[in-house]
Amino acid sequence: MNYISVTPKNTGQIKELLVDSFKHYPTFAAPFSKRANPTQAVEKFLSRFFSVEVSLYLKKGLVVAVMDGTSLVGVYVLKPPFTKLTLIDYLLAGGLKLLPYLANKDLLKANSAAALSATDFWEIEYLAITPQYQGQGLGGSIIEESIVPTVRKHHDKKLILVTHTKRNVKFYQKHDFEVSNEIYTDTKNAEITNTIMTRVV
After folding, report:
1. Would you list the domain boundaries of the chain?
2. How far is C-alpha 76 from the chain's CA centre?
3. In angstroms, rounded to a whole number, what is the distance separating the alpha carbons of residues 198 and 14?
Protein backbone atom coordinates (compact mmCIF):
# COMPACT_ATOMS: atom_id res chain seq x y z
CA MET A 1 0.00 0.00 0.00
CA ASN A 2 1.09 3.56 -0.72
CA TYR A 3 0.18 6.55 1.46
CA ILE A 4 -0.19 9.78 -0.48
CA SER A 5 -0.97 13.25 0.85
CA VAL A 6 -4.14 14.51 -0.80
CA THR A 7 -4.10 17.78 -2.76
CA PRO A 8 -7.06 20.01 -3.67
CA LYS A 9 -6.97 18.58 -7.19
CA ASN A 10 -7.74 14.98 -6.22
CA THR A 11 -10.44 15.21 -3.56
CA GLY A 12 -13.41 13.88 -5.53
CA GLN A 13 -12.91 10.16 -4.80
CA ILE A 14 -11.91 10.97 -1.22
CA LYS A 15 -15.23 12.68 -0.52
CA GLU A 16 -17.17 9.85 -2.20
CA LEU A 17 -15.42 7.26 -0.01
CA LEU A 18 -16.11 9.25 3.16
CA VAL A 19 -19.79 9.67 2.28
CA ASP A 20 -20.17 5.96 1.56
CA SER A 21 -18.36 5.00 4.76
CA PHE A 22 -20.24 7.27 7.15
CA LYS A 23 -23.80 7.38 5.77
CA HIS A 24 -24.93 4.71 8.25
CA TYR A 25 -22.97 6.19 11.17
CA PRO A 26 -25.27 7.01 14.14
CA THR A 27 -24.31 10.68 14.47
CA PHE A 28 -25.22 11.29 10.84
CA ALA A 29 -27.94 8.72 10.12
CA ALA A 30 -30.12 9.14 13.24
CA PRO A 31 -31.02 12.81 12.66
CA PHE A 32 -32.35 11.96 9.18
CA SER A 33 -34.06 8.66 10.02
CA LYS A 34 -37.59 10.10 9.95
CA ARG A 35 -37.24 11.64 6.50
CA ALA A 36 -39.24 10.23 3.59
CA ASN A 37 -35.99 9.02 2.01
CA PRO A 38 -33.46 8.97 4.86
CA THR A 39 -30.59 7.48 2.87
CA GLN A 40 -30.88 10.12 0.16
CA ALA A 41 -31.16 12.87 2.78
CA VAL A 42 -28.07 11.81 4.71
CA GLU A 43 -26.04 11.32 1.51
CA LYS A 44 -26.95 14.81 0.34
CA PHE A 45 -25.89 16.27 3.68
CA LEU A 46 -22.66 14.25 3.85
CA SER A 47 -21.70 15.25 0.32
CA ARG A 48 -21.74 18.89 1.43
CA PHE A 49 -20.29 18.12 4.85
CA PHE A 50 -17.26 16.22 3.61
CA SER A 51 -16.66 18.77 0.87
CA VAL A 52 -16.16 21.26 3.69
CA GLU A 53 -14.27 18.89 5.98
CA VAL A 54 -11.76 17.79 3.35
CA SER A 55 -11.12 21.39 2.27
CA LEU A 56 -10.71 22.38 5.92
CA TYR A 57 -8.22 19.67 6.80
CA LEU A 58 -6.20 20.13 3.65
CA LYS A 59 -5.32 23.50 5.20
CA LYS A 60 -5.42 22.74 8.93
CA GLY A 61 -4.49 19.07 9.15
CA LEU A 62 -3.45 16.07 7.14
CA VAL A 63 -5.54 14.15 4.56
CA VAL A 64 -3.90 10.93 3.36
CA ALA A 65 -5.09 8.62 0.58
CA VAL A 66 -4.31 4.90 0.83
CA MET A 67 -3.59 3.49 -2.63
CA ASP A 68 -3.29 -0.06 -3.95
CA GLY A 69 -1.62 0.62 -7.25
CA THR A 70 -3.86 3.21 -8.89
CA SER A 71 -6.93 2.32 -6.82
CA LEU A 72 -8.07 4.33 -3.83
CA VAL A 73 -8.73 1.84 -1.02
CA GLY A 74 -8.77 4.05 2.06
CA VAL A 75 -8.33 7.50 3.53
CA TYR A 76 -7.57 9.01 6.89
CA VAL A 77 -7.72 12.53 8.26
CA LEU A 78 -5.56 13.72 11.16
CA LYS A 79 -5.80 16.91 13.18
CA PRO A 80 -2.47 18.01 14.72
CA PRO A 81 -2.18 18.94 18.41
CA PHE A 82 -3.54 22.31 19.56
CA THR A 83 -5.29 22.93 16.23
CA LYS A 84 -8.17 25.34 16.74
CA LEU A 85 -10.83 25.53 14.06
CA THR A 86 -12.63 28.85 13.86
CA LEU A 87 -15.78 30.01 12.14
CA ILE A 88 -13.61 31.81 9.60
CA ASP A 89 -11.78 28.54 8.85
CA TYR A 90 -15.11 26.84 8.12
CA LEU A 91 -16.33 29.73 5.97
CA LEU A 92 -13.13 29.69 3.93
CA ALA A 93 -13.60 25.94 3.44
CA GLY A 94 -17.09 26.47 2.01
CA GLY A 95 -19.08 26.19 5.22
CA LEU A 96 -21.94 28.33 3.90
CA LYS A 97 -23.24 25.29 2.02
CA LEU A 98 -24.08 23.75 5.43
CA LEU A 99 -26.35 26.62 6.51
CA PRO A 100 -29.58 24.79 5.54
CA TYR A 101 -28.76 22.12 8.13
CA LEU A 102 -28.41 24.45 11.12
CA ALA A 103 -32.13 24.01 11.79
CA ASN A 104 -31.65 20.27 12.35
CA LYS A 105 -31.20 20.35 16.12
CA ASP A 106 -30.64 16.59 16.40
CA LEU A 107 -27.83 16.78 13.86
CA LEU A 108 -26.15 19.62 15.73
CA LYS A 109 -26.65 17.94 19.09
CA ALA A 110 -25.30 14.58 17.94
CA ASN A 111 -22.18 16.02 16.36
CA SER A 112 -21.35 18.74 18.89
CA ALA A 113 -21.21 16.09 21.62
CA ALA A 114 -18.49 14.31 19.64
CA ALA A 115 -16.33 17.41 19.19
CA LEU A 116 -13.04 17.43 21.08
CA SER A 117 -11.22 20.52 22.30
CA ALA A 118 -7.76 21.31 20.97
CA THR A 119 -5.28 19.34 23.08
CA ASP A 120 -1.76 17.92 22.88
CA PHE A 121 -3.14 14.82 21.12
CA TRP A 122 -3.13 14.03 17.43
CA GLU A 123 -6.79 13.35 16.62
CA ILE A 124 -7.95 10.76 14.10
CA GLU A 125 -10.87 12.63 12.60
CA TYR A 126 -11.79 10.01 9.99
CA LEU A 127 -10.56 6.59 8.94
CA ALA A 128 -12.40 4.95 6.05
CA ILE A 129 -11.78 1.88 3.88
CA THR A 130 -13.55 0.80 0.70
CA PRO A 131 -16.00 -2.10 1.30
CA GLN A 132 -14.08 -4.62 -0.80
CA TYR A 133 -10.94 -4.09 1.33
CA GLN A 134 -12.65 -4.27 4.71
CA GLY A 135 -12.00 -7.25 6.99
CA GLN A 136 -8.52 -7.81 5.57
CA GLY A 137 -6.48 -6.02 8.23
CA LEU A 138 -6.03 -2.85 6.20
CA GLY A 139 -7.36 -0.57 8.96
CA GLY A 140 -4.79 -1.88 11.41
CA SER A 141 -2.03 -1.56 8.82
CA ILE A 142 -2.96 2.07 8.21
CA ILE A 143 -2.70 2.81 11.92
CA GLU A 144 0.63 1.04 12.43
CA GLU A 145 2.31 1.82 9.09
CA SER A 146 1.22 5.43 8.58
CA ILE A 147 -0.68 7.10 11.42
CA VAL A 148 1.62 6.07 14.29
CA PRO A 149 4.82 6.89 12.32
CA THR A 150 3.38 10.30 11.43
CA VAL A 151 2.81 11.10 15.10
CA ARG A 152 6.29 9.88 16.05
CA LYS A 153 7.88 11.83 13.19
CA HIS A 154 6.58 15.00 14.83
CA HIS A 155 8.06 13.88 18.17
CA ASP A 156 4.63 13.40 19.69
CA LYS A 157 3.21 10.39 21.49
CA LYS A 158 -0.55 10.78 21.90
CA LEU A 159 -3.48 9.79 19.69
CA ILE A 160 -7.16 10.41 20.36
CA LEU A 161 -10.42 9.72 18.54
CA VAL A 162 -14.18 9.58 19.03
CA THR A 163 -16.21 6.65 17.76
CA HIS A 164 -19.86 5.68 18.08
CA THR A 165 -20.17 1.94 17.47
CA LYS A 166 -19.22 -1.11 19.54
CA ARG A 167 -17.60 -2.63 16.47
CA ASN A 168 -15.25 0.33 16.12
CA VAL A 169 -14.45 0.30 19.85
CA LYS A 170 -13.37 -3.35 19.59
CA PHE A 171 -11.31 -2.59 16.49
CA TYR A 172 -9.39 0.24 18.11
CA GLN A 173 -8.89 -1.74 21.33
CA LYS A 174 -7.11 -4.39 19.23
CA HIS A 175 -4.68 -1.64 18.27
CA ASP A 176 -3.87 -0.49 21.80
CA PHE A 177 -6.45 2.27 22.16
CA GLU A 178 -8.15 2.55 25.53
CA VAL A 179 -11.56 3.97 26.37
CA SER A 180 -11.03 7.19 28.32
CA ASN A 181 -14.61 8.47 28.45
CA GLU A 182 -18.14 7.92 27.19
CA ILE A 183 -20.64 10.69 26.51
CA TYR A 184 -24.28 9.83 25.87
CA THR A 185 -26.42 11.98 23.60
CA ASP A 186 -30.20 11.64 23.36
CA THR A 187 -31.79 12.70 20.09
CA LYS A 188 -35.41 12.29 19.07
CA ASN A 189 -34.57 9.18 17.08
CA ALA A 190 -31.74 7.48 18.98
CA GLU A 191 -29.38 7.48 21.92
CA ILE A 192 -25.83 7.92 20.66
CA THR A 193 -22.75 6.81 22.57
CA ASN A 194 -19.67 8.96 21.97
CA THR A 195 -16.70 6.83 23.00
CA ILE A 196 -13.44 8.73 23.43
CA MET A 197 -10.36 6.56 22.98
CA THR A 198 -6.67 7.30 23.41
CA ARG A 199 -3.34 5.65 22.72
CA VAL A 200 0.25 6.46 23.64
CA VAL A 201 2.63 5.60 20.82
Report:
1. 2-200
2. 8
3. 25
**Structural class in CATH, domain 2-200:** alpha beta
The span from the CA of 50 to the CA of 19, in Å, is: 7
Cα radius of gyration (the chain): 16
Q: Give the pLDDT confidence of 7-37 residue by residue, as tens digits.
A: 887 788 999 999 999 998 888 888 888 888 9
Q: Under 8 Å CB-to-CB from 21, ≥6 apart: which residues?
A: 126, 128, 129
- For residues 11 and 42, give the distance between their C-alpha atoms in angstroms, rounded to a whole number: 20
90-119 pLDDT, tens digit per residue, is: 999 999 998 888 777 766 665 665 566 668
Count how many residues are written for the chain: 201
Beta strand segments in the chain, E = 2-5, 62-68, 71-79, 122-129, 158-163, 178-186, 191-200
The 10s digit of each residue's pLDDT in 60-98 is: 999 999 999 999 999 999 999 989 889 899 999 999 998
Torsional sign, CA 5, 94, 101, 48: negative
